[in-house]
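Hi X.,

You mentioned you wanted examples for the new student's onboarding notes, showing what a folding record looks like when two proteins sit in one file. Here is a clean example. The first protein comes first, with its sequence line followed by its structure tokens.
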Amino acid sequence: MNDLEKQLGGNFYRCHRGYLVNMAHIAEYENDSISLSNGENIFMAKERYNEFVKEYMRYLRNGGTAGV
């Protein structure tokens, strides 16, 4: 999973040990889950929530692209 995460780059976020989420498809999020634009809900590890919010806000500020 680590290799895949590196290959996909900054538009994806590892919200749980088994999930990589494409930030372009996030509809909403809560402290324990992320809802995608297709209606699926993905679990988020509670210890990753604060980091996720920072990364997602950075993603949105950059116009939907990963920052450098």
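Then the second protein repeats the pattern, sequence line and then tokens:
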Amino acid sequence: MRYRNIPLLITAACALSACDLSPVPQAMVLEGKTMGTVWRVTLAGVDATRRYALQQAIQQQLDADDGTLSTWKPDSMLSQFNRYQGEAPQPISADMADIVTAALHIGAQTGGAMDITVGPLVNLWGFGPTKQPAQTPTVAQIAAAKAQTGLQHLRVIETAQGQWLQKDLPGLYVDLSTMGEGYATDHLARLMEREGINNYLVSVGGAVLSRGQNAQGNPWRVAIQKPTDRENAVQARVDLQGHGISTSGSYRNYYELDGKRISHVIDPVTGRPIEHKLVSATVIATTALEADGWDTGLMVLGSDKAKALALKQHLAVYLISKEGDRFISWMSPQFAAFLLFD
């Protein structure tokens, strides 16, 4: 499974305006690739002799996560479930049960806008393991793919003996890429805690989570990128205060087909890529997994419905819409508490 190819958040170990000041204490920065995107871990107060061991431990954790969630790897736990054409419950890991349970909850709260069963539609439009279509999918093709989707066809079963995932639609195809980055980011945070590291900023793709302070003894700060593929400009800065953050955008992962820009964000209701004016949705939540699920649902809904849902659910949300050549931003009251003005 491929995730968002380019992070939509700019992480920083200090205020962006002060990063070049010298001398300053040095942070340890580790980086690598996973799930079709990049990961980055910034640590404060960690001895340099631990670099190699931490790099190895992080990569091993992320490789294990990819081995659970990937739709690109035929032997992954998710791929095996997707190939299964029966209705009997299939054994899964506790971690996979957690991510699917969270996805089903957010899916219900968004009225199905965040739908992890849209895999057939994702593949039809060329954003899964299959190639990009040579022409726009037909109405019949879209209808056929939609008939193989629906959160109501998926169920997590948890007992004292373990966890299972069940589908009552044999052709149901689950795509967890909408929450994979958040899932992996939370795992990196737990890994840091197990290693006795209390000051860290971890990210996988567009999902970020922080704890403690940076190398200068200041809060970790994250910059939300201006939603354009032509420049790396900062739209807003936030102090995460130990929370997770994730951004979903329609402006980076796309291709051109029949003279139109085709976004990777698919609306489960229409079966088509979104075409509304909302171009970026950022969510801050207790976990990166939660933030990663909500941002996708809000992107699908569009500005007006996303604003109403954010207010109803008391979510920390920052939305950016494009009106002509202008970017119009909106934030919920909960998000304002994280915003930095310096």
